[in-house]
Amino acid sequence: MATTEHTEEHQEPTRRDFLYIATGAVGAVGVAGLAWPFIDQMNPDASAQAMASVEVDVSSMNVGDSITIMWRGKPVFIRRRTDAEVEAAKETPVADLPDPLARNPNIGSDEPATDANRAAVDREPWLVMIGICTHLGCVPLGQQGAFGGWFCPCHGSTYDTAGRIRSGPAPANLDIPPYTFASDTTIVVG
Amino acid sequence: MAGHGTSNYQPKNKVVRWVDSRLPIFSLMNEQAIVFPTPKNLNYLWTFGAILSFMLATMMISGIVLAMHYAANTELAFDRVEHIMRDVNFGWLIRYIHAVGASMFFFAVYMHIARGLYYGSYKAPREILWMLGVVILILMMATGFMGYVLPWGQMSFWGATVITNLFSAIPLVGPSIVEWLWGGFAVDNATLNRFFSLHYLLPFVIAGVVVLHIWALHEVGNNNPTGVSVKSSKDTVPFHPYLTMKDFFALVCFMVLYAYFVFYIPNYLGHPDNYIEADPLVTPAHIVPEWYLLPFYAMLRAIPSKLGGVVVMFSSLLILFVVPWLDTSKVRSAKYRPMFKIAFWVFVISCIALGWLGSQPAEGVYVMLARFFTFYYFAFFLILMPLLGIIETPKPVPNSIAESVLARHHGSTATVGSGEGRPDAAPAAPKKD
Amino acid sequence: MPLKSMTAAGLLSRFARLALAGGLAAGLSGAALAAEEGHSLIEKQDWSFGGVFGTYERAQLQRGYKVYREVCSLCHSMDRLAFRNLHQPGGPEFSEEAAKQIASEYQIPDISNETGQPFDRPGTLTDHFPAPFPNKAAAQAANGGAYPPDLSLIAKARAEHRGFPGFIVDAFANYAENGPDYIYALLTHYEDPPAGVEPVPGKHYNPVFLSGDWISMPKPISDGQVEYTDGTSETVEQYSADVSAFLMWAAEPKLEERKEIGFRVMIFLIVFAVLLYLTKRKLWRNVEH
Known about the structure:
The complex is a heterotrimer. By secondary structure, chain B is mainly α. Chain B has 16 helices and 2 strands. Chain C has helices spanning 2-36, 58-70, 96-104, 136-142, 154-157, 166-172, 178-187, 236-251, 255-284, and strands at residues 107-111, 118-122, 204-205, 214-215. Chains in contact: A-B, A-C, B-C. Chain B: Heme b b562 binds at residues 98, 199. Chain B: Belongs to the cytochrome b family.
């Protein structure tokens, strides 16, 4: 009895196989549905997504000062650049840059990486950037390297005074976080 | 494993054949999970084995996921569990799957054990199979108990305190053992941390013993509702697709029950006090363990002496190891044992009654009832099992599974085989040719 | 032998009947005990979040929050809730602006980045509800030695012991609202002690209270105490219902998501079970078993 039934399975698919296929398909949907919560639980949770904004008082910063603050667990560089640094950045043609995009969410995603587009709106000496090398996530050192900007000690990427990649393995300019100047002396990051 | 290596299994796929001739994993799977001959008269109580495998996998997966978000520290544990419930994506779902899953796991294991007791699945040649099952049960209890401590609620803390204090009943070394278990002078951070570590470890040990359990099962073959051993291929069907589909159907029915608890009454089986953070200064009015430990808790409290209660409680589990030798009957299945059948159902009632008594305050009539049912629990194993095998006259046992199936379908009565149904007279394993 | 076994069987069955009777008697006495404890005052309320399709009522949660904020929060903390929760789906669903506004009305202690000194700043969405007392001892000192419990989980941390057979009925009746039912009953049952009962100093008579008839919390709310802007009646009953619903949400904020997913899962599993049953039956059709 059992053996008869067993050999029948090796026949061509027939109408009666529809039930088997339907059952199998429903089972596959179920497995996929069950898998999703177990995958999604590893995504950032609601408390991490509730983006905390950080207010920074920059009233005590002089020209040439840098500070590093924490935002969403990452370092954010705030630098009040010297005129020489701004000039150096401005003189560099965008065509010479390995990464021609400004990477500044405050102005739009496809803007060219001019110094004005990298710096704070209407406050060109101010540069606010996420201090994480776009290569593999190390924190670059400030005011070092061949271009007077930042230098990543891990694999030697060099950024200029506008935080744009100039040499080394990093593929992109340093990212800029969303931020605004709440007043002349207060920056709100996030 | 049984018959392994003698198979004439020839994979069609070239790659599979190449692998199989070097590592016969496909032959093994074919042998153990596809063509494995299974009695064709198994009823739905036999599906709990598959359900338990599913539950073990579910508990391990959901537990590993919870561990990604949990912190075993008395300062953080309660907060982290609430973090899982509130902020982690689907955290509430995964935690409820795990918490309700513990209850479902025990429900299934108790059904599995009751089925084994009723149909005499512990008798020769399945003694080791049964004993491995008892090992799994004890490991499950330890794991469940330690898992309940992790949310660090009031019941977690006081449950841990009460249960670890059981060991203080041991003469002379008791107090030292308790301090060793705690890693301090009370249940505290060290205790929570080691419980977490062990709670993570033990399921893998259980999985290992489950492999042995299945190995032993596949060596001796399934018992079946008649208790008569498999005689020929007429008695069996291949495991796949017959039993796989039946198990699948039963599993999904089980999941309906499981899902009802998870989605609609997830806290029904929990205790409200465990939503209060542990406080070493305030003991809850009634400390109760999880429902699946209540019968044993009732036995503990039924005995007026501290050491006696602890001994009785642990004996109630350890006695299961010797059940194969306590039962003197030659007939396996209670189907053909009128007196054992009654004794069995009274035993089931006793266990349920003990479970209910475990949740009641230990005073007055409750203690008396608990003593009565505790007595019956032990009498069932120590008095009735040996005695009934001698005084009972079994009903006629069918000659074979095929015959009993035919009799059921065609209304004719089975003929009595003198030596049939006797474990010692049966072939040891359903050998496939 | 047959005679002997008959007697033994008879004995056994009598034994079974005895055991059954014993169990039944125990069950009855348990039920009687439960009734004696006087918690029958806790009546099942008709909550919008009960049942298979239950959802919270936004307006009720918003009113409940107002009651919590103006009354309960003077003594009770609610540590596990952040202001952002007031805005998340499945809750009171205040608009983001409204939730930000509520947060900014609180002063949150913080440490200054520049000076390292503590200072207070307005709250933001990510801040948790501030506690009324700096620590447990301060809370006890201000409340005559009694500690007002944190309310984040109170709706799941308090429940009447249902006893037998109530607890079995509850499982089938899908009854999981015993927490809010208790809170509602507690808040609406402050009354004068019966004649002849000696008042307990510093305690207040409430026959619903789980740990005896005397509770440290004075009657927290009276008619008209909290102003409702949506025309809902300003009675103790209404306040109690609203704040109980709010506390249930606070304890179980994912209830709506849970029940919604649950319904789909149940339908799926039942369809799958039917398909598997048909498959299994087809397979076994030619096998006598």
